[in-house]
Amino acid sequence: MSHHGELSPADFLPLEAENQGELITRPSLSYWQDAWRRLKKNVRALISLYLIAALALFTLVGPIAWNVDPTLQDLNQISQAPSLPKLATLVENHIPWTPPVDPALPAIPSEIADQVDPVSAFRLAETASTQAVRLLWDGLSTAGGYNIYRNESKPEGFNDLGLPLISITAGNQIGYEDRLSLKAITYYYSIVPSDGFDEYDQFTSIKVEPVLAISIREAMERNILGPAQDAAIGSAITLEFHPFGTDYLGRDMLARLMEGARVSLFIGIVAPFIYVSIGILYGGFAGYFGNRIDQLLMRFADFVVALPFLLFMILFKIAFGIGPGESGIFPMLLALVLLLWPATARLVRGQVLQIREQGYIEAARILGGKPRYLILRHIIPNTMGVILVTLTFAVPSAIFTEAFLSFIGMGVAPPTPSWGSMCNEGVKTMLSHPHELFFPALFISITVLAFNLLGDGLTEALDARMRSRE
Amino acid sequence: MLSYITKRLVAGLITVWFIATATFIAMHLVPGDPLMNQKAVSAEIRLNLERKYGLDKPVVEQYFIFLGNMLTGDFGISYTQQNRKVNDIIKDHFPVSATLGILAIFFATLGGILWGAITAVYKNRLPDIIIMFLVILGISVPSFVFAALGQLLLVNLNQLVGQSVLPVAGWGTFSHMLMPSMVLGLSTMALLTRLMRSSMLDVVNEDYIKTAKAKGLSPLRIFFRHQLRNAILPVITVLGPQIAAITTGGFVVELVFAIPGLGRYFVQAVQQLDYTVIMGTTVFYGSFLVLMVILVDIVYGFIDPRVRLQ
Predict the structure, then answer these.
(1) Sheet holding A120-124, edge to edge
(2) Strand (E) positions, A186-257?
(3) What is the nearest CA distance from A459 to chain B, expressed in angstroms?
(4) Are residues A315 and A211 in the same domain?
(5) pLDDT tens digits for B127-181?
(6) Pairing of β A133-138 and β A120-124
(7) Where among A193, A208, A240 does a domain terminate?
(8) SS3 for B56-114, per residue?
(9) Neighbours of B52 (CB within 10 A)
(10) Residue A80, in any domain of the structure
């Protein structure tokens, strides 16, 4: 091969340098920008972020917007189910009613009849309210008295008349006032004539639906009506509003949930922050120095990991003690931190050991990077991803631990509410008033769910390998 | 192999010593002592009692006495339950907790592997979506809520049938154990399902699955022999810590279902500062957990030849 064709001098000129190959066509993104971009694409993670924001709002702004004292007990309103605002009619203070007597009738009939007619015209004297139900009837000349019963369902027969209210032993008394814990539901009143001792087998029933009424005195006592405000009798006023109902002491559930959120979220977020920080320091120290120090430090961490978690949680919680009037939040925090730091320490140490050997650290060191620069610029930022994920997953487990301890009665001391202690109280009345268990459990679940989903999203977003799969 | 096990056992013994010491220190940090619960004790009687139980000695001496007794396997006599040996309390009530825990682990593992495999097979289709939703629920709802709901379910079931099909609370027969152990295993089951699913999906992309397909093996054989078997490995690794979580986490379930397990005695002992019972249960549980973790590691070495035990 000696012939190479014609060559011109132009072929020997150097080529123009082309920079095209090095051109960056995609916008440059930092690690965190990239992670944030991926997180925003993840619908579930985004929903969890909104949920967490809503929870923060509920905890921080909630008590300002819903300004109800969570410790205020109202024994008139125990274990009320969640409801819309209730309206009540304002009525005069109660004045005792003297039952009317029919002068035409004898108090004791001259002779005891074998048989009498049923009582006729059994009726209301005035509109029935929850303050009082006033009954009237036409007396029987042959009766020596009347027995009055109240039932919440329609009486089917003589044995189904319900609660005996009174035995009247005067045949000429033709009225009776019932004030026995009246509610705004349907009642069936029955009247049975008697000879003064024994009942005749006749009864008459009426259906009564008392309206919800509140007297002026009651309204003022319950602070629904200001003293200066003179509302007209018969006007409708709004009773205390409990959107989530009340608990077994009549405390507002919504206010307690907000107060409980402060406790639960405080422990759930602050404890992981502290122990993850300690873990970073401890693990980073061990990982950076390596060898003997590493061995020693990690062996100690292994011991702490081996402690049976819940047993020691309880033991420490008691050991750090609750003085009178204290809520017990601090001992719980301390116990969590003391028991859980080694997990993060192990993780961070592993990361540091791994990163220390990476090519880019070597490169940075060759380029003259000082240890301080290497740690701050390269090692810590590269462990941050894993740490952030750990932190996110640590929150739900801390919340669970708090709830668990409060549930078995070893958590925060009453009256401080936490979601766990509210569950503990609610589970006792689970069958009759399920809302007392449902709401705190729901809040725990939502919080745990949100942080779990966020943790999943962060794991995916921070995993740089995912970038190449797109 | 043998030297590995010996090494682990020695390390385990040191860990148990650490647990015992930590318990001892934490216990003595609590203000008061077990005799505080005795009513109207005069100073003289109190002194006698202290002498009887050795509480008059310095704390350091008490610690060494305790360590010496522990070495012979004697945890002493309970302070609050008259003449009851701590060893007897453990012997009577640990089997209950253990039975509950083993059943729970059984349910959790079986369910986790099954559901995880199903979700992986039906990836992103309806069964996957439904099961994964339930898994999220299982992870997010606290166990005491499940326990309460489980009881409610039993009440309604028994009412519906008109007789007691499954007892709502108590302990004794297998029917007593069914609901509590399922409730106890629920969160672990959810966790294992998630793990199994991702592990199954990882395995599908492995080269040996391609090889098996290329060899013309039947899909069923590939699924059971290659995919499922390899996917189970990570599940077994987390089983150690999960056993720990379940055996100690049984308190709530024991409490709600009125089961006479050891957890209840521990809580009671802490409240009454019953030193010997606290020490006994903690050291016992600690050794049990340490042993469990070692056991799982050894089993793992048998199942996965790639893991060399050193």
Answers:
(1) A120-124, A133-138, A175-178
(2) 187-194, 204-208, 213-215, 236-238
(3) 13
(4) no
(5) 888 888 888 888 888 888 888 888 888 888 888 887 777 777 777 777 788 888 8
(6) antiparallel
(7) A240
(8) CCCHHHHHHHHHHHHHCCCCCECCCCCCCEHHHHHHHHHHHHHHHHHHHHHHHHHHHHH
(9) 10
(10) no
B70/A14 Cα distance (integer angstroms): 88
Tens digit of each residue's pLDDT (9 = 90 or more) over A338-384: 888 888 888 888 888 888 888 888 888 888 888 778 877 788 777 87
CB-based contacts of A395, cutoff 8 Å, min separation 6: A268, A269, A272, A447, A451
Phi-psi region of B183 (alpha: psi -120 to 50; beta: other; left: phi over 0): alpha
| Model pTM score | 0.76
A332 and A422, same domain (yes or no): yes
Same domain, A60 and A126: no
CATH number, domain containing residue A181 = 2.60.40.10
Q: Residue B286 and residue A307: Cβ atoms within 8 Å?
A: yes
CA A317-A318-A320 angle, 5° bins: 70
Range of the domain at A120: 85-240
Do A193 and A100 belong together in one domain? yes
Kindly determine whether residue B252 and residue A445, on different chains, have CB atoms separated by under 8 Å. Answer: no
Residue A229 covered by a domain:
yes
The reply to whether A214 and A275 lie within a common domain is: no
Q: What are all long-range contacts of A375-380, with beta carbons under 8 Å and residues at least 24 apart?
A: A375/A284, A375/A288, A379/A284, A379/A288, A379/A352, A379/A355, A380/A284
Number of domains in chain A: 2
Same domain for A55 and A202? no
Interface list for A 425-454 with B (CB within 8 A): 427, 430-431, 437, 441, 444-446, 448-449, 452-453
Assess if residue A28 is contained within a domain: no
Does residue A253 share a domain with residue A217?
Answer: no
Closest residue of chain B to A398, computed from CA coordinates: B142
Dmax (CA) of chain B = 87
Residues of A in contact with B144 (CB under 8 A): 403-404, 407, 423, 427
CB B261 within 8 A of CB B249: no
- In a domain, residue A430? The reply is yes
Report the pLDDT value the prediction gives residue A270, as an integer from 0 to 100.
92
Same domain, yes or no: A168 and A218: yes
Measured CA to CA, the distance from residue A385 to residue A288 in angstroms comes to 18
Contact B289 A314 (CB under 8 A): no
Beta bridge partners of A433: none
Q: Tell which of A217, A240, A263 closes a domain.
A: A240
ipTM higher than the 0.85 cut: no
The CA distance from A152 to A208, in Å, is 10
